[in-house]
Amino acid sequence: MSIEIKIRKNEPVDRALRRMKKKLERENIIKDVRAKRYNEKPCERRRRKEKVMAFTAMLRRRHAE
Q: Which of 20, 22, 37, 50 could form a disulfide with 5 if both were Cys (CB 3.0 to 4.6 A apart)?
């Protein structure tokens, strides 16, 4: 999996870096790398997902009222 960012003519490097970061963010590459940085037990993964699901359900209930 490789990401290519071609620097346009007369484009500052910081703008090209910003485009690259946005592209990485859109493709969830940074999120995947951070998640795989440490080993996570299946029970911990399940507990984390349940916590996220409970939070989103609470937000949906709050905004449904």
A: 20
